[in-house]
Every structure is written in C-alpha cells, then in structure tokens.
Amino acid sequence: MRFELFIAARYLRAKRRQAVIGVITAISVLGVAAGVASLIIALAITNGMRRDLQERLLGSTSHVELMRVSADGIRDWRPLLDKLRALPHVTAAAPGLYGQVLISRGARSGGGLVKGVIPADEEKVSDLLQAVTRGSSRPLQPQVNPDAGDAQATPPIVIGKDLAETLGAEVGDTVLVTSPQGELTPLGLVPRYQRFQVVGIFASGFYQYDSSYTFVRLTDAQRLFSEPDLISVISFKVDDLYRANIIGRTIEETAGKGFQATNWMEQNRELFRALKLEQIVTFIVLALIVCVAALNILIALTMMVMEKTKDIAVMMSFGVTAAQVRRVFLLQGLMISVIGTGVGLVVGYGISLAGGHYRFPLDASVYSIDYLPFAPRFVDALIVAGVSLGVSAIATLYPSSSAAKVLPAEALRYE
Q1: ∠ CA 117-183-177, rounded to 5°
Q2: Pairing of strands 188-202, 132-135
Q3: CA 298 to CA 290: how far, in whole Å?
Q4: pTM of the model
Q5: Which of 20, 116, 171, 239 is most buried per CB count within 10 Å?
Q6: What pLDDT digit, counting tens, does each position of 275-332 carry?
Q7: d(Cα 155, Cα 239) in Å, to the nearest integer?
Q8: Would you say the C-alpha torsion 165, 170, 171, 177 has a positive or negative sign?
Q9: Radius of gyration over alpha carbons of the chain, in Å?
Q10: In this structure, what are the phi and psi dihedrals at residue 178, rounded to the nearest 5 degrees?
C-alpha cells in the first residue's frame, strides 16, 4: 500500500479526540450516499417514463401518417394505398377514417374518437386491437360470405377500458354513437347516430387512448359520417422508426401535391422535450445534495487538519514532503466520497430494481400511464459517480493545501 493511502486510511479509522469530526465524517458519507441514490432513482424514473411512453406511443400509433392538406379526405384511395405500400422501407400501410363523436349508454355519455379500420391492415400498424382484454376484435372482420346477409344487425365496436368505465359498458352492451356531421333536413341540421354493440374492450395502459379511442369497421364509419368510400388518413409502419421523418418525406413526394405526411417524432416532440427538460432539472436539483455533502467533507477535513497539525509537523520533520501530505488528505476525502458513492449506487439500483419488479400504481388520468416505470442504466451510474467524485475532489483541495503549508518548526515550538 502506498504511504499516503496508508496514512489516509489510518486517519479515517482513528479514534477522534474531537467526536464532532467523526460525526461530520459519517454525515458526509451518508450525504454522498443519499445524493447518489436519489440521482440514480430519479434518472431511472425519467428514463422509464420516456421509454414506456415511447413504446406505448409507437405501439398504439403508426410511425408515419399521410393525409390531405385540406379537410376533404382521400378519395380513390385504393390505388394510392397499393402504390405507397410498395415503397422502400415501408413495412405496412392501413387506411383509416377518423371522426369525433359522442358515445352514450343510458344516462352516461362521453366524447370519443371513432376510427374506421380494416382490422387485418390496422393490426400491422397499431397494437391497440391486439390489446383487447375483454371480448374480441374478431367481429370487426368483414363477413366471409356477403351473400348471407348481415348476421349482426347492430354493427360491432371496440372501445378503451377507461371509456368503458365512464359509460358503465361491458362486452355485449349497446352504445349510441352520435356524429356531429349531421344531415340537412327541413327542420335544420340533424345529427346522425347509430347504435353499436360493444364486442371488445382494449387496455393499452395509455390513458389518452383508453379513455377516448374506439374502433369500428371502415364501412360502418363511412356510413355513420355519410362519406362513402372516403378515408381521412393512411397510416404506415417503417423499418427504421428513427428515420421516420425522411421516409415520411418520400411518402409525401410519392403521393403528390395536396398531401402532407407527419411522423411520430413531430406529433410527440413537445412531450419528449418536456421529459428531457425534466430529466436535466431533476439532475441539477438532486446534485445539490451531493454538493452539500461535499461541504461536509470540506469541514471534516479542515477540522482533521487542525487536529493533526502536530502529526503533520512530525511527519514533515522526518522527511515527508508537502506533496505527500497534500495527497494524504486528498485520498482521505476521496475515500469518504468513494464509500458514500458506492453505498448510494447499491441503494439506488436496489430500489430501482425493486420498483421495476413491484410496480407502483399511478393515476393514469394524470400521468398518462398506470404505473411508475423504472429503467436504470449503466451509463447513469458512470455519470453520477463521476459527478460525485469530482465534486468531492474539489472539496478536498483547500484542506489538503492547508495541510501541505504546515511549518514543522512553528507547529512543534511549544510541544
């Protein structure tokens, strides 16, 4: 063991003449540990929030959406769909017809977004129909034998879990869907309405979708909105979601004038920007805990230098250089920081792993997701440990320099 490290370890373990120094040293270790653990947990939560939100958004929505610049919708869409589906990097494409509606069941009602889909195509660009937990989305499939007539007089609908709770609806119940796009009659504009039977309830875990999204067959949606053979959007899945903006521009250029493509990054830019800003602010605020602990290290080492002045003078009279004395106290502060950082990393990752295993429930209407996600990363440990050790090293500069400036003759004059 190096001489400086040996002396630093002995000073750290030695019994104090002034008990307050030992107390401050223990507080310093606990302060560093608390700061490091808090940073690890906070970063794990923010990373988990970003990861889960991105996964659920990408699972629930398409990577790229193409629509008309005007609100007229897309007519003669089948040749266009076949043309765009054959583009490079496009793995799937699905037509859809959106419309805001009022959904009611008895005295209960709620606003919703109806999407008319072709289930076989929709399941390739979105996971919502595959997240049905009660009932089934199979009734949305078109009739195999059209000549047999409509076996189901009431068309089927699949709704979100939270919307079902708002309506008090279960699988098999009938709901009334009212469209504001009504018909002009001698009595004025009369809203169109249609009764649907709930055949499935999906639970994506994302409140925005579970509380408002509903799925019906494309033909039923066109009938409800009085828009025969019209769609409002073509949704795409691509092979590289981080190049969705580039692929989207290619799709837009291929579709021709009057079309506009948007991608998942543009649609959720503000959300991910807010999460990134939250992560930075959280890191800065919690790093202040480490700074406070570093001040405790500075105080403890300064008092240690005052207590060990005679020992320092004796060592220097035996030939120990000022640089060696400086390193003794630098290493002592570093040891305090290493112990605190190590304890903090163990505690922080332990709590993060436990939180990921035993999911802490959240109010989905407030946080958009129904549990608190944890996603600890190894790179976060390196960043937090580097910040902790760096701040602590800065705190040791003054007391170590003061120790190196001790004059042996002056310190031993009255001994």
Answers
A1: 45
A2: antiparallel
A3: 12
A4: 0.68
A5: 116
A6: 788 778 878 877 787 788 788 888 878 887 777 777 778 887 778 788 888 888 888 8
A7: 35
A8: negative
A9: 33
A10: -115, 125
